[in-house]
Automatic annotation (TrEMBL):
HAMAP family the record matches: RRF
Record localization: Cytoplasm
Protein name, UniProt field: Ribosome-recycling factor
Function: Responsible for the release of ribosomes from messenger RNA at the termination of protein biosynthesis. May increase the efficiency of translation by recycling ribosomes from one round of translation to another.
Keywords of this entry: Coiled coil, Cytoplasm, Protein biosynthesis
Family: Belongs to the RRF family.
A Pfam match: RRF
Superkingdom per UniProt: Bacteria
InterPro entries according to UniProt: Ribosome_recyc_fac (IPR002661), Ribosome_recyc_fac_dom (IPR023584), RRF_sf (IPR036191)
Amino acid sequence: MTIADIKSAADSRMDQSLASLKTALARVRTGRANPALLDVVQVDYYGSMVPISQVANVSLLDARTISVQPWEKGMGAKIEKAIRESDLGLNPASMGELIRVPMPMMTEERRKELTKVVRSEGENAKVAIRNLRRDANEAVKKLVKDKLASEDEQKRAEAEIQKVTDKHIAEVDHIVAAKEQDLLAV
């Protein structure tokens, strides 16, 4: 493994940490409806638990309502029950074959709690990115120890790894700030 391999591996793994953060923050409910909110809900489909998106079409009716259209007639009640029993605090309503999931208004207190959750997720992502930086730096040091790279190359590589880390940490801060602004907007 070369220094370039180590840097590119660290960069791609840091990108994965960012993707993981975005996925985690998509589940944090804002005042607006988001179909990704229901991705975590599992439905009993002939004895196996599957995500709602595999048994129904999930889309937006308007800015505050998610619609769930089951592909099979008998699944409506099961989907409605699964959404109600999830810990998302949603109350679905059936309208024939269509299930409407209105997003309740959020209180100021709940918004502040959710900003703490968002900051915590952001901090977890930063810790993961810093751990990846540490692992990359240790891999470079091992190359120097094994005499496969010089100490000058090590210094350059550590500086470049730090730049990549700083770029990803700034991106985490940007994502968290955007989500907080989204949460606090009434």
